[in-house]
Amino acid sequence: MKRILVIKVTSLGDVIQAQAVVADLKRAFPGVAVDWACDDAHAEVARWNESVDRVLCAPLRRFKKARRWADFKAIAASIAELRAYRYDVVLDIHGVYKSAIIAFLTRSKVRYGYHSKNLGEQGAAFAYTRRFVRRNDVNAWQGMRDTVADALGYKAEGPAVYHLRIPPAAQPVVDAGGKPIAVLFHATSKDDKKWPIASWVAVAGDLVRRGFCVVLPWGSEGERKEAEQIVAEVPQAQVLPQLSVTGIAQLVDASAFVIGVDTGFVHLAHALGKRTVMIFIATSPTHFGNEAPYRSTSIGDGRSVPPVERAIEAIDYVHSIPPAEGGAPGNTPVRPIAAS
Hints:
Layout: E1 3-7, H1 12-18, H2 20-28, E2 33-39, H3 43-48, E3 54-58, H4 60-66, H5 69-82, E4 89-92, H6 97-105, E5 111-114, E6 130-132, H7 140-152, E7 181-185, H8 197-209, E8 213-216, H9 221-233, E9 238-239, H10 245-254, E10 257-261, H11 264-271, E11 275-279, H12 285-288, E12 296-299, H13 308-318
Parallel strand pairs: 1-2, 1-4, 2-3, 4-5, 5-6, 7-8, 7-10, 8-9, 10-11, 11-12
Helix pairs in contact: 1-11, 2-7, 8-9
């Protein structure tokens, strides 16, 4: 086995969590080169992974929306780049038309994809020469690791390893005045995943009292207004200027604690080994949540709004260290922080 292509096109959280597959492959096949194919909106994530050898991307989502000639030319150029190497194995762990087309264009003789019943779009089945047996006995993130491992004949053992290294910021993202930074990801693309403003106000106030510099990033005008509503009640908190994807990643990397709803950047916090609380309201924590003992946890049942008290308990939990162990198992060691 000399070269493998992994395809996971979108979305941000999925692409982040799927990076653990790369470390598994490199452990199973020493010396193998692992390339990654995705939409260019999420290419930065794969480039942050020090174990990825080559990132292949194209503006697929942008072209679908705008149909610009420049984007069409970029897609054509990416096809030529895709076909520059002959892959021993292509692993489509996404399972929709666009990922299947990428797999098919590689010309590899060994192209894995899901069985039709497990595909996001059943027509994608045309691209595959072999099929994954999808694992449903674990959460989605471990399931990706186990599915690939089962197909290629190894075990995805131990905690997920992401090998993400965020490029350093030219200057501090936040002037925290020496305080540890707590990031609140209150925003989400879907209204049914939102936590009430009053709950965010309560949590922001609690974190301020614990000694954190509390900051709120945002991505749209509506999200900025919601952040301002929270800060109006907790004036010690800060609404940040609009940041790029890399800028928000640098913020997360500089933080001591992250709490947020089911969004990609909260998954990034978990992957970077941050103390993290993830709030689930309309999606399943069993399938999409994060757990690492005494460092990262998920709350909510995916059907109702978790109370503030449950969030405070979760914050206490991820800031505790078992006295008998002096630390906690998980993806990375617990990092002591100044706030208590």
